[in-house]
């Protein structure tokens, strides 16, 4: 079989990680890069040996010698570009979140359902070894019926600024940026149950804490301390059709002594902490037993995660593997995110369709 010819749209930070992984895959040719910043597209293309660079995604999508694209642009363009790419006959790996809103995300699902192309959402944490191992335990029934999950992604001074802090581009703050990862992990490990209600709160109390000098922070290139219209933190309880529930809290800015990312799921035969390190709790002979799978890394490993995500996508495009992060998964997660924002606005629990 000939190499899968890849185009990458958006040549920023996350594109670099996609390209690092594509470059390791022998079944791939990195063919072209597109960025609205044409100079950046040309630089990134030269760096990765792509023969073409484009100053607009439309030019890349019109390139008949491209089979599949990674969409690594800002959130406001994900849905529109994913739909255009599918309609241009390309397979699509679109970065998380699938879109800014549920309505936008649905357009991608509809386009995917009308086509035979692979449309995969960049839920990279699903692909890390710790998650793959836990998922295999769950699929074998080792945790039984999962009825509760808890997720937390807390930063103290972690608002990156730039487009992340501009709601019109990002769609929101920590909930849509990092909350999407931990909510997706729980939802995926719970077996993708249908969310039926959500009660959420969002707060804009501390702002971006640009005054803080005592801690390092990662800032995007165009950081402007005066610009920020996203929430500082959000929390929620999500109810599912099967009676299961999820509790989540996320922040960019919070007065807390420590930061952390925690993901746990609890079933009637066993429970598991996925992050910060994979551990499984169960009962053996009337005794509570904690098990620690002996794997290369019990926590999310970015290199492992992106390599596996990209290799999986390439194999799915070649018809060799099932796509485990289809568009409808991105839509269901987006429904929960939208629900949390809507519930916070309404000040009460809301039902989801
Ligand atoms: N999977 C992860 O863990 C992870 C981590 C970070 C970011 N992301 C996601 O990746 C995406 C990009 O984030 P980033 O940190 O790389 O941002 P970035 O700002 O570093 O890069 C984005 C690039 O997209 C370009 N761009 C914007 N709109 C475009 C358009 N319409 N057409 C072509 N190019 C366009 C920009 O010029 C920029 O070069 C975001 O959706 C973000 O949520 C995912």
Automatic annotation (TrEMBL):
<dbReference type="Pfam" id="PF02894">
    <property type="entry name" value="GFO_IDH_MocA_C"/>
</dbReference>
<comment type="similarity">
    <text>Belongs to the Gfo/Idh/MocA family.</text>
</comment>
<dbReference type="GO" id="GO:0000166">
    <property type="term" value="F:nucleotide binding"/>
</dbReference>
<dbReference type="InterPro" id="IPR000683">
    <property type="entry name" value="Gfo/Idh/MocA-like_OxRdtase_N"/>
</dbReference>
<feature type="domain" description="Gfo/Idh/MocA-like oxidoreductase C-terminal">
    <location>
        <begin position="135"/>
        <end position="352"/>
    </location>
</feature>
<dbReference type="InterPro" id="IPR052515">
    <property type="entry name" value="Gfo/Idh/MocA_Oxidoreductase"/>
</dbReference>
<protein>
    <submittedName>
        <fullName>Putative dehydrogenase</fullName>
    </submittedName>
</protein>
<dbReference type="InterPro" id="IPR004104">
    <property type="entry name" value="Gfo/Idh/MocA-like_OxRdtase_C"/>
</dbReference>
<dbReference type="Pfam" id="PF01408">
    <property type="entry name" value="GFO_IDH_MocA"/>
</dbReference>
<dbReference type="InterPro" id="IPR036291">
    <property type="entry name" value="NAD(P)-bd_dom_sf"/>
</dbReference>
<feature type="domain" description="Gfo/Idh/MocA-like oxidoreductase N-terminal">
    <location>
        <begin position="4"/>
        <end position="123"/>
    </location>
</feature>
